[in-house]
Amino acid sequence: MKNVLITGASGFVGSFLVAEAVAQGYQVLAGIRKTSSTKHLQQAGVHLVELNFADTALLTQQLQQAETNFGTIDYVVHNAGLTQANNPNDFFTVNAQYTRHFVAALQQLGHPLQKFVLISSLAAYGPGKADFQPINIHTPYAPITAYGRSKLEAELFVKNTADWPYVIINPTAVYGPRDKDLFEFVKLVHGGFEPYLGRHQQMITLIHVHDLARATIAVMGRADVVRNSYIVSDGNSYSKEELGAVLKGLFGKKTLKIKLPLAPIVAVVSLVEKLYALAGKRPFLNKEKVTEISSANWICESEIWEALQTKPTYVLSNGMQQTVAWYTANGWLK
Ligand SMILES: NC(=O)c1ccc[n+]([C@@H]2O[C@H](COP(=O)([O-])OP(=O)(O)OC[C@H]3O[C@@H](n4cnc5c(N)ncnc54)[C@H](OP(=O)(O)O)[C@@H]3O)[C@@H](O)[C@H]2O)c1
User: Fold this and answer.
1) In testing the pocket of ligand 1, which one of 5, 6, 13 has its CB within 8 Å of the most ligand atoms?
2) What is the CATH number of the domain that holds 88?
3) Whole-angstrom Cα distance, residue 165 to residue 75?
4) What is the pTM of this model?
């Protein structure tokens, strides 16, 4: 049995990566920190490994101890990352600097890895142009948020590390059971309110977390795929209203649809951001975030499915149906 070390195993995407790796026959070393929840990491074949990315020497010791306990680390999926931060510098510390520390510590193990998969983001490329041409892996990087720039910094580091057997995965917006981000919109529609940021045409792309995990672990195991990048979506693009329409259909509800004008929202958000800055903080909904989530073109090409000769299980209709069923069954929607 090969070993895969999955970092950020306690998080939304990480817990699905762990389950999928077990399903595909790997022994999993689940990288967590002291404070992480282990609720979704209790299955057989999963061993918890505490990792401290802030301290390269300690991290090296922790990796060596993990190999003593569980055997050679064959594969790594570096999924740990910060998606929200009070201070933009934290994105660069966790997403970029900790990736550099992690690679340095892995290099100290004294044996090659079969693969190092970096979970980056479509945000590293930034939104596509106004002509609605899809983003692909040859599109010049143009991130528009600190988050996107920090993910790009990590990507460039692994790409520039000589002989490093990387594969970069750039997921678009991920949804599915346990997701809390898109859930905010699901809750609003469930409550009969369907707000949209801006009156412009906007195209979004999505990937169900189960399909993201399936594709990531499959590509990790492919010996012929190395030093390559894959954007991952379900292969479709949706207008922002399509998401609302699917949810409305699932809830069987009428909604109040409002297209909020962008300029006043940006003005209010900028003001709130300035007030937060006085306390050295940054609100989650800041000017960069509003620009990112209201960008017109998030259409992307997702060549991973062709490379794997398979198709995603979920598109918006059945994926959202499965997700809403989960939210309902688990008491998230009352
Ligand atoms: N969700 C999306 O739509 C999306 C889209 C594109 C890319 N991604 C990428 O997917 C990855 C996972 O995101 P997610 O949505 O699953 O987020 P999440 O639920 O917040 O999970 C983040 C994981 O990273 C760990 N982590 C955060 N800061 C850490 C630190 N300083 N040291 C060690 N571990 C740390 C967290 O550990 P704790 O549990 O201890 O906090 C958690 O396990 C990230 O790299 C993100 O950039 C996500």
Assistant:
1) 13
2) 3.40.50.720
3) 10
4) 0.96
